[in-house]
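Hi there, hope your week has been kind to you so far. Do you reckon you could talk me through the fold, stretch by stretch? I've dropped the whole record in just underneath, so have a look:
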Amino acid sequence: MNSEEAGPRALSHLHTLGLLTDAEHAQALAHPDLPNTPLRTPSEALGWVAAKGIVAAQALPGLRSRATPHAQDEAHRTVANAVAMVSGQAPAWVLLEISLMANRLEDGVTDDALDRLQALQLIDPAQHAQALGLLPAQEPEWAAPASPAATLAWAVRTGVLTPAQLQALASPMSAVSPEGRQVVADALVRTERSSGGRTKTVRTHSVTWSSTGASGSPRAGKVIAVVAVVAVALYFLFAR
């Protein structure tokens, strides 16, 4: 399921849980940014709703009280995950974008994909066992289809394979099958996008927002310029 289908589906699920009112649900579905935002899960959709101001970010924790009786546990998990995505010392939309980019790097990372990598002899049994213990937790209903290429790139980012081992698999001298070579080529592209080699190349933003002055004083109107917030955060997320 692509993001254009997954986003509206996740928003509709929030509505079913009782976390979005009819008006909020309609406003979210009509938002012009929705088709271009890579939402997949209800938690991501709820974080996006807050980042877009459809629901105030500070009101997110209180949405638990809206949940229908049969959906209390799921609603509480969804709200908690959404709060974690947009809470911090930067605007909610900046924090959301960082979270979404991190989450998309784990799309398709599954045990089935690991099994396929082992069958293609791109990882050995020891690496397979190590990777199984590191797999990201995903809800099957909202997970992306298994992707051997995404999983191989993830294995490099998590240290199961080294970049040098991935490069060796791509060597003309390796005994990798044609299918395996295609997986390796795709994984190489993915790792280059997320790390940029030694030079980290990511999309950046320059944003401003106002803060209040000292307690008891009138609004100071102080403007804080935050340059490359996303770049710095992504560096620490993916460059390790």
